[in-house]
Structures are given as structure tokens and as C-alpha cells.
Amino acid sequence: MVFKIVVVLVLFVIIASLFSALYFLAKDKDGSERTVKALTLRIGLSIALFVLLLLAYYFGLIGVPVKA
Question: What does the domain layout of the chain look like in residue ranges?
Fold first, then answer.
């Protein structure tokens, strides 16, 4: 159950980072690097979540449901 909460929280942070990048893109007209930093954070979090899911599957924390 804790693993599901962690995954959902990371997804919310990824979405928040995406919207902050959109906000910075719309508001910063002087070529600020805040948009790039927000998108870099989003990519890093997405890769980290993917690796976390792969490791959780490898160690048996999550699995494929078996049909009875």
C-alpha cells in the first residue's frame, strides 16, 4: 500500500512540474531558464519513477495479476 502512495505522489509532482514549466513559459518573456529547469526535473522524476517500478517488479513488490 505504501508503494502505491509513493507512485501516486511522484506522479502528482511530475504533473506539478509540467504545469510550472507551462507557467514559466507563458510568464517569462526574457528567456529565463526556469522553464528548462522545470522540464529537466520532470524528465528526471519520470526516469526515476520508471526505474523504481522496474526494481519493484524485479524484487517482487509488484507483479502481474494472475487470472484464476
Answer: 2-58
